[in-house]
Request: fold
Amino acid sequence: MPKSRTLSSRTGFLWRFPSPEHQVEFFTRCYGPANRAVATLAADLATGLKAEMLDVVKRFNVSGDHTLVLRMDYLEEVIHKPATP
Reply:
C-alpha cells in the first residue's frame, strides 16, 4: 500500500487595511476574541487595549505610507493520501 506524503512550505500574504486605526476597529468589531475582550472590559481598559493593539500593528506596518500592510507568514501543510480502491 502506498504511503501518504506530507509537503510543508512557508507561505505568506500581505494583509492590507486603509489605516492602522481601521484594522483595530475591524478586529474589535468583527474578530471574536478581540470583540469579546473589549466588550467585557471597563471603558478605560477597553480604550487602553485598543491603544496597545494600535501600537502593535504600527510596529509591524510595512506600507511606508498612511495605510497598513502586514506581512502574515504561516506554515502550509499538504497531505497527499493515496486513494483506496
